[in-house]
Amino acid sequence: LTGELVTDATTASRSLLLDLDRLRWDEELLELFGLGAETLPRVVRNDEVVGSTTAFGAPMPVGGLIVDQQASLVAERCLEPGAAKCTFGTGAFVLAATGGTAVRSRLGLTSSAAWSVAGENAYCLDGQVYTAGSAVRWMVSAGLLDSPEELDTASGEDTAGAVFVPGLAGLAAPWWTAGPSGALVGLGLATERRHLVRAVVEGVVCQVTALVRAMVHETAVPLQRLRVDGGLTRSRVLMQAQADLLQIPVDCYPSPHATALGVAAMARLASEPGLSLPEAVHEWTPAATYAPQWSADRAASTLAAWESAVEAVVDREDSTR
Length: 321
Hints:
The chain is an alpha+beta fold. The protein contains ten helices and 15 strands.
């Protein structure tokens, strides 16, 4: 790559030194942190050609820079407020489009640039679950599963009252606990392995549900369906539980390469000036759609029990500091 040092708007927006509304370095903050004299990369639009490369032979333009989670947000066509996606990997990453306004969250969510194209900035709310796929690996190491592929067959229909708090690597928004704070509560003599596996599944999707509900509260825009990608979307049990807890349909993205396809859409914008973002992103049909099967009362009761368990964990963490 030839040319000056650059960073794209979505990557730069993760920095505390960026003016989020104008998507450029904040001079006051740079001075405050003693970085005023530093040479910082130029913040560029996501549809900007930033240099060229000969890595593939003849010189080729390089453009379409975008960070990973925002790239999948683009690929899944979450382009307008009221659209959100969750990537289920080692952790779970929920992003909701908020349009041209950077929402200042009161619930501990992160507001960042979704993209900057054609001279217009768009934003998203970002929430994380630190433990998702890693919770499945933990179950394997703890002897609850023989392999990750066993998740669906080993899971029971219910938890028999067991509740799992997926804080094995801490809890992110809106609690922000740094240390391990995982917990299994509500165990009894009737608790079996299948109940514990189901509790872990529900614990992960309960935290995703809590993040989505917080985002809806912050934006006042209802979510009609959740779009999902990542390895855990292969679990029918987990995806059905997600639809049941959210009480909306869950659409599974048909490709494991959402991030790469989002980058490709941005690169297309960089190479075809005048093309709109919706035109650059391929239409897609869900590989599977999960509709809610639980009643609203059962979903609310399950979420309330989980929230009580989280509060107890967080209170315990606070009391030991």
